[in-house]
Design goal:
The complex is a heterotrimer of chains A (248), B (409) and C (375).
Chain A: E1 6-17, E2 20-31, E3 35-39, H1 46-53, E4 61-66, E5 69-70, H2 75-84, E6 85-88, H3 100-110, H4 116-129, H5 145-157, E7 163-167, H6 175-190, E8 194-198, H7 202-208, E9 211-216, E10 219-224, H8 226-231, H9 236-247
Parallel strand pairs in A: 3-8, 3-9, 6-7, 7-8
Antiparallel strand pairs in A: 1-2, 1-4, 4-5, 9-10
Helix pairs in contact in A: 3-4, 3-5, 4-5, 5-6
Chain B: H1 2-18, H2 29-61, H3 94-127, H4 132-146, H5 150-165, E1 173-175, E2 178-181, E3 184-187, E4 189-192, H6 195-226, H7 232-250, E5 255-258, E6 261-262, E7 267-268, E8 271-274, H8 275-302, H9 305-313, H10 318-348, H11 360-372, H12 375-408
Antiparallel strand pairs in B: 1-2, 2-3, 3-8, 4-5, 6-7
Helix pairs in contact in B: 3-4, 3-8, 3-10, 3-11, 4-8, 5-8, 6-7, 8-10, 9-10, 10-12, 11-12
Chain C: H1 22-30, H2 35-61, H3 71-75, H4 82-100, H5 106-123, H6 130-150, H7 166-192, H8 197-212, H9 215-224, H10 226-229, H11 238-264, H12 267-275, H13 280-310, H14 322-331, H15 339-374
Helix pairs in contact in C: 4-7, 4-14, 4-15, 5-6, 7-8, 7-11, 7-14, 8-11, 9-11, 11-13, 13-15, 14-15
The chains are: A alpha/beta (248), B alpha+beta (409), C mainly alpha (375).
The complex binds adenosine-5'-diphosphate and magnesium ion.
């Protein structure tokens, strides 16, 4: 992976919440179509890191470049980057007052200025892709958790993003629903999307990831391809973490 | 009868206390519940009947025969403010006084609801703004005005502030074509000169408003199909205004606006909200707006952080997010309690008596009752009026809640 | 997995760049975050500058408090006339009877002190035996209050309720209202959830009837109709009539507050006690009500705040409550022209009580919320 190939470039990133130092000297570059899985104990700064990428959180030091654009306070640029970066949340965050179809077509209509017909056509296609086209006219409250998360994925995809961020997309789901969401994500990965996924689903990581990043205490402790990561962890911290989550 | 009740009571209570096992018909729950209900119906109706009997008897002893015949008698007192029905001392009957009172209540209620909604939303938005000073100002406003009796506030504004400090008519405070002074608020009023042409003008105006709705639907369809949007509100408003003004001149000024003009001692022309009405309106607005502001704050706070993050993550701009995500969700929380506040405002307008505004409780439940002594009918009519307002409010609330439920789950 | 590993080294925590924390950053974010934010801030600064200094000058720095008649205030009109409030304080707080009999003033003062002594521990979290305290406050205290303030027993001179006034009357009306309305409200709330259609519809009609009518109409009804309802010979004092009207009115609102608590209880509770073989009343009194009431305390306090403010309406039917005495004083020859001071004082007294209670009810609500989340 050469430098010109990277779509996200983060260097010397530092982030504080008040006086709490949440991210420390993060350096990371992500190549086009690369799939990265981030794991680490709770509170280690995983969410904070990916939320900095679409500026849901503001960083204080260092720089983040997405597709060549540096993240600053410029609202126009932020909006542009956000429409190129899709995000899926742990708790779905679907809009409860809109139908599934409206959830998906909202941003294409208002941000991409597409016609409603066109936006809905595409939304239907993507709902088919995540295999819930028959729920299009229901409200989010009427769906199961797994279905809601797949709608959330479709909603993000409707903006035709170049990068997808996932923040623990399966950890609020019952076990039987985790599989359907992971399958959808695997299909997405196979289609060549650039993805950064925070998850503890190590099976998924092994199958999909080009690189696994382990974070602790706001730092990147180590990063490696799945095989080396699982077989030969470099850091004692990683080893401890793996033994904890792989045990049960 | 009495024995029956005692027997019933024994079975009923003994069973409860001792917990006897069911052994006979009295223990059968269905039978028992039927008996209890029958006795309750009997007691309630008997009480009402005897109260009614005693009241009618007592009234008759005072020389008052309860009947509605006083409706058509001429009211021997003056009602100063009746903008909708003409009041003539010596001609207007009691029932017309009732109508005047009802209309005056509705007038101050409508004025108050409009003003309190605007002010309440404004304060509520300040309360939720990210400016610290604005937040604290709104907080202080809400906590001051909702924690003092409304009656005290009405009297404070009327007696301590407006009556004491508003200037005499000659030095009225000017707000455009409105003048405020110690007698009240002078307002412009339209005078219709040529009736037919005025109707034509009104027709043109209504037509252009309808046309603007058609235009709006067309623009929405166009946006759905092509994605191109138009500033619908701006276009509609300017077209309506242009049509309204130009047709006004083309038709040869079918009506004039009567502006208040300062004469030697007082204003001539225009209309007047007398000071009691103005004070009442002012106090009701300030008081109710504090409650509405709190509803608005709660509504905005009810939109979760996750919703806002999701909206930002799909690239909506701030105004889009406010319009498409925050307002629709917040309104569902804001509207029901705010409708209840409208009812409260209407009921609270009865405090007008303290400052002498002539609404239904003052002219009907107080003056007319004192004059005629027809307590039973007058109080009943007053209560029925407010109960109708209350039922109407519940009706609207139910419709709204049902609509929300359909769209939500 | 046997390869040697490197020990993880934690980078030291650094402090954030200075311009992002501390008061400078706070001011920048909360006052001057954007252009519109800055404009709003400047506007508020301007308003504060315009109104606060003159108000403080009037109410504090130039205010009159010395002397015992209006002459001082009349000389210095640039400040408020707190002398007026000082001179009329006894009347405003205890009404004409006690103001005219200063040797008896200890009675209402003591009643208030005992009330405060009972109420304060109730507002503190860790007080033991809260239920018993509450019971004393609701049952024993009213008796104590009536014998002490009303007199006529133990050689204490009699003072009829009709002679009470000021804050004492306001307080009495509100307290009587809540104490009597509580049991009535509980019964109505249970009735509204009863399985018997007649009981349910009577409860609904009763509750909605009182809630739909303004209190002032009810007070009129109480003062005009009540004497008509009973055979001649039965006489009610004006204050008692107002109390009856207020109680009936308040019971409807209390019922709705209690119903909220009943609804919040989950169904499981009833089923569990059914399984224990309890009858309806046993179940209700021992299992359901204690919990439902606990949940509904904040709403009950809120209805009480509303009632406390609403008692001022009795001034319209001619009772001398705090508001009426304030108004009358400001119209007396001795003090006319000082309306603002009178209303401001009365307003402040009402405000302190209502605001205090609303803080308490908000605190309780938060506590209930966290309790429920923990469970
Ligand atoms: N909005 C916030 N304000 C203050 N501290 C926060 C905030 N969000 C997260 N933190 C803190 O930052 C650290 C990292 O949080 P997060 O990125 O959510 O961790 P993770 O996603 O790895 O569990 C945690 O210690 C958390 O308490
Ligand atoms: Mg997280």
């Amino acid at each position: 992976m050469t430098k010109s190939d990277s779509i996200i470039k983060i260097s010397k990133l530092n982030k504080w919440y008040g006086k709490f130092h949440a991210l420390k000297d993060i350096d990371l570059s992500v190549g086009r179509t690369e799939k990265i899985v981030i794991c680490g104990p709770s509170g280690s700064g995983k969410s904070t890191l990916i939320r900095c990428i679409n500026r849901l959180e503001v960083h204080q030091e260092g720089s983040i470049q997405v597709d060549g654009i540096e993240l600053t306070d410029d609202i126009k640029q932020i909006t542009e980057i956000r429409s190129d970066v899709g995000m899926v949340f742990q708790h779905f965050n679907l809009f409860p007052h809109l139908t599934v179809l409206e959830n998906c077509s909202l941003a294409p209509i208002w941000v991409r200025k597409k016609s409603k017909v066109e936006a809905e056509e595409m939304a239907m296609q993507l709902l088919e892709k995540v295999r819930i086209p028959d729920q299009a006219d229901k409200y989010p409250g009427q769906l199961s958790g797994g279905q809601q998360q797949r709608v959330a994925i479709a909603r993000a995809l409707c903006m035709q993003p170049r990068i997808m961020l996932f923040d623990e997309p399966t950890s609020a789901l019952d076990p039987e629903m985790i599989k359907e969401v992971l399958e959808t994500m695997i299909e997405l990965a196979d289609s060549g999307m650039t993805m950064i996924v925070v998850t503890h689903e190590m099976g998924f990581a092994n199958r999909v990831a080009d690189r696994i990043i382990f974070m602790d205490e706001g730092q990147i402790v180590e990063q490696n391809d799945p095989e080396s990561f699982f077989k030969n962890p470099e850091s004692d911290r990683t080893k401890l973490f793996l033994s904890q989550i792989l045990d049960h | 009868m009495v024995k029956g009740i005692i027997a019933f009571g024994q079975y009923f209570l003994l069973d409860k206390i001792v917990g006897r096992s069911p052994s006979n018909i009295y223990q059968n729950p269905k039978f028992r519940s039927a008996i209890i209900q029958a006795i309750l119906v009997f007691i309630v109706f008997y009480t009402f009947y005897s109260l009614y009997q005693t009241t009618v008897f007592n009234l008759e002893e005072r020389g008052i025969k309860t009947s509605t015949s006083f409706f058509d008698q001429v009211a021997p007192f003056k009602v100063g403010f009746s903008p909708f029905l003409n009041f003539e001392l010596g001609e207007t009957t009691y029932i017309e006084v009732f109508y005047i009172g009802v209309l005056n209540t509705l007038l101050v209620a409508v004025l108050g609801i409009i003003a309190a909604t605007l002010l309440g939303f404004f304060i509520g938005i300040l309360r939720s703004s990210n400016n610290w000073l604005a937040q604290k100002f709104a907080l202080i406003y809400v906590e001051i005005f909702r924690n003092m009796p409304l009656l005290l506030q009405i009297m404070f504004w009327n007696f301590a502030i407006f009556l004491a400090f508003l200037p005499p008519p000659k030095q009225s405070l000017e707000f455009g074509a409105f003048y405020l002074n110690g007698r009240g608020l002078q307002t412009p009023v339209p005078i219709v000169e040529n009736n037919f042409l005025f109707k034509v003008w009104l027709g043109i105006l209504i037509f252009s408003i309808i046309a603007s709705f058609i235009f709006r639907n067309w623009a929405k369809k166009r946006r759905d199909q092509t994605g191109k949007s138009l500033p619908v509100l701006g276009i509609s408003l300017s077209v309506i205004i242009i049509i309204g003004i130009s047709s006004f001149y083309i038709l040869g000024k079918p009506f004039a606006v009567d502006l208040p003009v300062l004469g030697k001692f007082n204003f001539k022309g225009g209309g007047q909200l007398p000071l009691p009405l103005f004070s009442l309106w002012f106090a009701l607005t300030v008081y109710t707006s504090a409650f509405i502001a709190e509803n608005v704050r709660a509504g905005i706070a009810s939109v979760s952080k996750g919703q806002i993050e999701a909206a930002r993550s799909i690239g909506l701009t701030r105004p889009q997010m406010v319009k498409l995500i925050i307002i629709p969700q917040a309104l569902r929380v804001i509207i029901p309690p705010t409708i209840s506040q409208y009812l409260n405002l209407t009921k609270n307008s009865s405090l007008a008596m303290a400052v002498g505004y002539e609404e239904v409780v003052a002219v009907w439940a107080n003056i007319s009752l004192n004059q005629t002594g027809q307590a039973l009918i007058i109080i009943a009519m007053t209560i029925i009026f407010f109960e109708i307002c209350s039922l109407f409010t519940s009706f609207i609330l139910n419709i709204y809640n049902r609509r929300i439920q359909i769209t939500e789950r | 997995m046997t390869m040697n590993t490197v020990k993880f080294e934690k980078l030291p925590d650094r402090l954030p760049p200075v311009n992002t924390v501390g008061w400078v950053a706070w001011v920048k974010q909360n006052l001057f975050g954007s252009v519109s934010n800055t404009i709003i801030t400047l506007l508020f600064f301007y308003l504060i500058f315009l109104y606060i200094p003159p108000f403080l000058e009037w109410s504090v720095f130039n205010a009159n408090i010395s002397g015992s008649d209006r002459s001082i205030c009349d000389e210095n009109r640039s400040g408020a006339c707190w002398t007026f409030i000082k001179v009329r304080m006894e009347q405003l707080l205890f009404g004409l009877y006690f103001a005219q009999n200063p040797d008896q003033m200890w009675r209402p003062i003591m009643a208030f002190i005992v009330f405060g002594g009972l109420l304060t521990p109730l507002a503190i979290d860790r007080t033991p035996y809260k239920k018993w305290l509450l019971l004393i406050l609701l049952v024993a205290y009213p008796i104590f209050f009536i014998s002490l303030v009303g007199g006529g027993v133990f050689g204490i001179p009699k003072s009829d309720a009709s002679e009470w006034g000021g804050l004492l009357l306001t307080f009495t009306l509100a307290f009587v209202g809540i104490v009597l309305a509580l049991p009535l409200g509980i019964l109505l709330a249970l009735g509204r959830r009863s399985k018997m259609p007649v009981v349910r519809s009577f409860s609904i009609i009763y509750i909605e009837f009182w809630r739909g009518t303004p209190l002032i109409t009810i007070l009129f009804m109480a003062s005009v109709m009540l004497p008509l309802f009973f055979p001649s010979g039965v006489e009610f004092d004006k204050v008692v009539r107002a109390m009856i009207g207020i109680t009936l009115f308040q019971s409807a609102y209390t019922a709705e507050a209690v119903r909220g608590g009943l609804q919040a209880l989950d169904k499981g509770q009833t089923e569990a006690s059914m399984a224990l073989g309890m009858g309806y009343w046993q179940q209700t009194i021992f299992i359901i009500l204690p919990q439902a009431l606990r949940i509904s305390i904040p709403s009950i306090v809120n209805t009480f705040i509303a009632l406390f403010k609403d008692t001022s309406l009795v001034s319209i039917i001619g009772l001398l409550d705090l508001l009426k005495i304030a108004q009358n004083s400001s119209r007396s020859l001795d003090w006319n022209g000082y309306d603002i001071e009178a209303y401001m004082f009365a307003g402040l007294v009402f405000w302190i009580f209502c605001f205090g209670m609303s803080i308490y009810s908000q605190k309780l609500e938060r506590k209930l919320d966290t309790d429920r989340n923990v469970e």
